[in-house]
Design brief:
Radius of gyration: 36 Å
Number of domains: 2
Shape: elongated
Number of strands: 15
Helix content: 40-55%
Distance between the termini: 134 Å
Number of helices: 6
CATH class of the largest domain: Mainly Beta
CATH superfamily of the largest domain: Hexapeptide repeat proteins
Strand content: 5-15%
CATH architecture of the largest domain: 3 Solenoid
Length: 256
């Protein structure tokens, strides 16, 4: 039981890393594979309540590989940890089958309550890019892609691609769980739209539309002002004006 599925994990490394040329090379030169071996032994001890021994084996594996996996973490089949330096996987983290983690990834907890779930759960086929931080007791859906340096603080839907800090969903493949998705190194999937740039572009388009509308209204108002005839003088005002003119003329005659 302890050493089952090792061949599958070696083959998974060969399938996802073109730099790997043979199984022998994977066994000798890949720290991600070595870290999994240490984790299996540490977890075997941990489940039998030899807690200090399990933590010690985990610590030795961390010193030799640069990858820290708590013996309480649950890891599925065919996990590929590429490069691996600085990867941290917490005690209550869960990782499904066929997942890929790159260097600097953290599956961390945000709670200090002992005994409760504090770390994330990764579904099947998840890829987490280098430097990404997944923090909290939530689920990353099957086939999800977490971009490099993303900071994920909430649940991720199946097939979603997340980028940024805090991470935002930029695309989603709704068929991710129906068919196996093609492997995408570092979770790069072509032209990923920038959510901030997209929001700014939307605002610019709206401002342009509003400016055009204001310009139309100003031209319409100007046309109405030019075409409108001068207002007629009220009759009472004309009478007063005529009376004033007559009185002024009579006064002038008297003076002369």
């Amino acid at each position: 039981m302890l050493w089952m599925n090792l061949r599958e994990e070696i083959d998974a490394t060969l399938a996802r890393d073109p730099a790997a040329r043979s199984r022998f090379e994977v066994v000798l030169c890949y720290p991600g594979f070595h870290a999994l071996l240490f984790h299996r032994l540490a977890q075997w001890l941990w489940r039998r309540r030899w807690l200090i021994a399990g933590r010690f084996v985990s610590h030795v594996g961390r010193m030799l590989t640069g990858i820290e996996i708590h013996p309480g973490a649950r890891i599925g089949k065919r996990l590929f940890i590429d490069h691996g330096m600085g990867v941290v996987i917490g005690e209550t983290a869960e990782i499904g089958d066929d997942c890929t983690l790159y260097q600097g990834v953290t599956l961390g907890g945000t709670s200090l309550v002992r005994g409760e779930k504090r770390h994330p759960s990764l579904g099947n086929g998840v890829i987490v890019g280098s430097g990404a931080q997944v923090l909290g007791p939530f689920r990353i859906g099957d086939g999800a892609r977490i971009g490099a340096a993303a900071v994920v603080l909430r649940e991720v839907a199946d097939g979603a691609t997340m980028v940024g800090n805090p991470a935002r969903q930029v695309t989603r493949d709704k068929d991710a769980t129906a068919l196996p998705r093609a492997f995408q190194p570092y979770a790069v999937c072509g032209d990923i739209p920038d959510p901030i740039a997209r929001a700014l572009n939307s605002l610019l388009d709206e401002v342009t539309t509003l400016r055009a509308r204001v310009s139309e209204l100003e031209h319409a108002q100007l046309a109405l002002t030019v075409e409108r005839p001068a207002p007629a003088e009220p009759a009472a005002l004309r009478l007063v004006s005529a009376t004033s003119s007559g009185g002024a003329g009579e006064s002038a005659t008297r003076v002369l």
